[in-house]
Amino acid sequence: MKSSEFKKRRKRLLQQIGPGNIALLASAGHCVRNRDVHYPFRQDSDFFYLTGFNEPNALAVFVPGREQGEYLLFCREFDPTKALWEGAHAGLEGATHDYGADEAFPIAELDTVLPGLLEDKCKVYYPMGRDAELDRNVQAWIGTVRNKSRTGVVAPDELAALERIVHEMRLFKSPEEMALLRRAADVSAAGHITAMQACKAGLYEYQIEAELAYHFNREGLRAMAYPAIVAGGKNACTLHYTDNNSKLKQGDLLLIDAGAECNHYAADITRTFPISGKFSEPQRQLYQLVLDAQLAAIAQIKPGVNWIQPHETAVAVLTQGLLDLGLLKGRVKKLIKDEKYKAFYMHRTGHWLGMDVHDVGDYKINQQWREFAPGMVLTVEPGLYIPSDCKKVDEQWRGIGIRIEDDVLVTADGCEVLTAAAPKSVHEIEALMGGTQCQ
Ligand code: GLY
Ligand code: MN
Ligand code: MN
């Protein structure tokens, strides 16, 4: 991503904060895995969105109208020993030279410098309640300013949620962001194809997970956007199954929910397919129903349609289908009103997608579901999950879990499915797997 893109974002943020106010945003910290070993570092999405700065121990400060510079970065000073052991880090010079900060300060001087920046400001924008340390620090810094009131300085008297501004910006993807989402989608779709081709009874779920990880890594996408779900048979009925350690059985379906992250942008794809390469009749019927619901939901998405409409469409298709197949009994309107479908479809049809897999952005405005607009990206992911011990339905349906999930960009006159390269029709899946399997 070009530095001009980050600069553009900061300019928009500064305009919205307005003169006389100030905004603070902390980087992510290192998370300990055990003793002195850390998880791979992942920058806070808001912080990266505005700074492009990929280090822990940093705080960005935005002060609209400040003469000496409006964008300040507190970060680690350059340390040659650290560079020798751990590799490159920007230091103060890099913060201004490479990352566009107007001024940079050592993070160790935060408590000395920050209160001065708060003097005579009205509102402090920061992500409230997200980082306990920042919450405490903001209170303490304001206290320090207040203690100087006899010198005539005035302490800020209002706190505001920075997320309101930043998350609304993040909801609408720029062409540069779309390019990264497309790359994440392309690599992830190809990973799903690889997984389908590698799948056979007798393998373990983690061996299929390894195929995905291998593919993502060799394409240079070194992190998954979220822990992969590789769920054979009835494991697919556990919505957030990530054990991925069961043996794949002939005759079962395999549900894979996995996506790669590309420069902080996520893909989120689910495909469900027969381990043998061929759907049984009950599997095919339920699968086709989920697919019909998904296609009907996607067909709804265009500017001006509100958020909940695709979900309601999916629910209507699924409920009618469950009635036709005999899994539900009654009248379709009443079944929907009484939410009877929730026995088999208990989640929503999608979520915003972007830097975070469950991305930011309000779903309602003034209590009303918001309307789609160009540049928004969402997932569409209906499913059916028939518990293996569900005595209310015929035995043939039990233990089947199916979800089909694509990533969809809202365009000027409709939408584009970014993950269309991953096969999902019965015919496409059977053709792909039939060509690779010994029957
Ligand atoms: N992979 C998480 C989700 O589909 O929402
Ligand atoms: Mn999803
Ligand atoms: Mn998913």
Q: How does this structure look, described?
A:
With 439 residues, this protein is α+β, with helices and mostly antiparallel strands. The chain has two domains: 3-169, Creatinase/prolidase N-terminal domain (Creatine Amidinohydrolase, Chain A, domain 1, 3-Layer(aba) Sandwich), CATH 3.40.350; 172-433, Creatinase/methionine aminopeptidase superfamily (Creatine Amidinohydrolase, Alpha-Beta Complex). Helix content is 37%, strand content 17%. The chain is built from 13 helices and 21 strands. The chain has helices at 3-17, 45-51, 80-86, 91-97, 110-118, 132-146, 162-171, 175-198, 205-218, 281-300, 308-325, 332-337, 426-434; strands at 22-26, 32-34, 37-38, 59-62, 71-75, 103-106, 123-126, 158-161, 223-224, 229-232, 253-258, 260-262, 265-266, 269-274, 364-365, 368-369, 377-380, 383-385, 401-403, 406-410, 415-417. The strands form seven sheets. It has a six-stranded mixed β-sheet with strand order 6-5-4-1-7-8, sandwiched between helices. Strands 9-12-13 form a three-stranded antiparallel β-sheet. A three-stranded antiparallel β-sheet has the order 10-11-14. Helix 5 crosses helix 6, helix 8 crosses helix 9 and helix 10 runs antiparallel to helix 11 (308-325). It starts with a helix and ends in a 5-residue tail after the last helix. The structure holds glycine and manganese (II) ion (2 copies). One manganese (II) ion binds at residues 268, 351, 379, 381, 405.
Can you tell me the number of structural domains? 2
CATH superfamily of the largest domain: Creatinase/methionine aminopeptidase superfamily
Stretches where pLDDT falls below 50 for ≥5 residues?
none
Which strands sit side by side, in order, in the main sheet? 6-5-4-1-7-8
Number of strands: 21
Helix fraction, binned, reads 25-40%
